[in-house]
Amino acid sequence: MLTDIEIAQSAKPKHILEIAKEAGVDEKYIELYGRNKAKIDLSILNDTKDKQDGHLVLVTAITPTPAGEGKTTTTIGLADGMHRLGKRVTVALREPSLGPVFGVKGGAAGGGYAQVIPMEDINLHFTGDFHAIGAANNLLAAMLDNHIYQGNALGIDPRRITWKRCVDMNDRQLRYVTDGLGGRVNGVPREDGYDITVASEIMAVLCLASSLSDLKARLAKIIVGYTYDERPVTAGDLKAEGAMTALLKDALKPNLVQTLEGTPAFVHGGPFANIAHGCNSVIATKTALKMGDYAITEAGFGADLGAEKFLDIKCRMAGLVPSAVVIVATVRALKMHGGLAKNELGAENLEALERGVPNLLRHVSNIKNVYKLPSVVAINRFPTDTDAEIEFIIEKCRALGVNVVLSTVWADGGRGGEALAREVIRLCEEEKGDFTYSYELDGTIEKKIEAVVKKVYGGDGISVLPAAKKQIAALESLGLGGLPICIAKTQYSFSDDPTKLGAPSGFTVTIKNVKVSSGAGFIVVLTGDIMTMPGLPKLPAAERIDVDENGKITGLF
Q1: Are strands 255-259 and 55-61 parallel, antiparallel or unpaired?
Q2: Would you say the pTM of this structure is higher than 0.85?
Q3: Which secondary structure element, helix H or strand E, spans residue 284, and what is its range?
């Protein structure tokens, strides 16, 4: 059996100009990055503003387990399936972070015969977007500390600096550091720390910006700390937004690549969904909508994280309305939610499936009853799945009025996604949703958090720690209480406890810290033991990656 990277390396990609033509992107908008990658000039959105948008389809999933769900793989295979049916379709995905690539989770270019290529490039440096984001983030940090060193005219309290440096790597050693040591000429000593690049507010700003001028305006609003008399200090106060925008001007342009079957794919931006908003860029999604009758996009982790943030944050800010939602599940993962160990998933076990299927049903109910959108469940089928197990899931979903379609895109590519494609087309053409957010913006910060916990997570409420209460009061006193919320929470449970699998109830979510990402335009709410800088596992994937004398990469997965 070929590995993902071997499948990708055996493909014969079309020249990217052919893919651009397929997508209806004129050559005048193309900036080539070799034969197989390109950036798209931002002027394309203005020039196509009168062109009708296609249908927006969101692919999300159940709560993830180590057994895997295949959300990105399904997204790509669905698009290839639509392509095979003669539809004009585009894909809009996030770029992978180097942290998971070298850690344990792997990349984010799909798998099997449903991948975007060039897979190695996409999973590694790609077109340099993440490097530009890291550079802009760290330029702001350098200008902030330099301002303090040079006399601190703004009166910034070094103990109340909120801006961290970042690096796109899992490096627990950098979570908490003390810097500025070594005497007066080497800076001002203070406690500091690093975030992974995908958790940087710059990443969120880039992904939510609608234009270069909007990007600059958002960057200027970023709050980096507070003065001795409690006033917020922004990047604009430090006169940093112009230089930061200069670093990001090319990174803001969406990237065009292709699937293994030649479907156009816009891969751009990459915030995590457990610690950020988890969606690809607004610009890439809007470009995909202009270039296809159907634009297939994904949002990270389970529907309680990525889909919630896609719908409550991205769609609200960008004026997007999905036509349909695909909820990806596997029998194996549902049995794991039912209490089975990973080595027990191969045998039929309807009792474990019955205990685990409520996880899927809660996600389905949320999409249908909270957000009021048409949906379909895609079962990413494994050879060990039995007909009885599949029929059990079909019956449970039918009771909620939602269809279930089997997907074999990992093994069969677009051919294995045709049935799912037909159902998604039917939903887009025949079903009409009544898209509703899970909360309105006029509530207090606590009320908005509580709405998500009760409506989406299925919890009883929230427990706000004293420090978080003080932070909420300060933000509301600054007039920032009307922003949407971005909850940072474990991806492994509806609750903030990763050990609570399935569809837990009777729990409260502990709110530890609340801070504003004023450039991105949302309030970040940190729960449980969530961290914004992951660490490498005992056996990191990086140990298996190698390159030969001809430059051929192996072991990427």
Answers
A1: unpaired
A2: yes
A3: helix 282-291
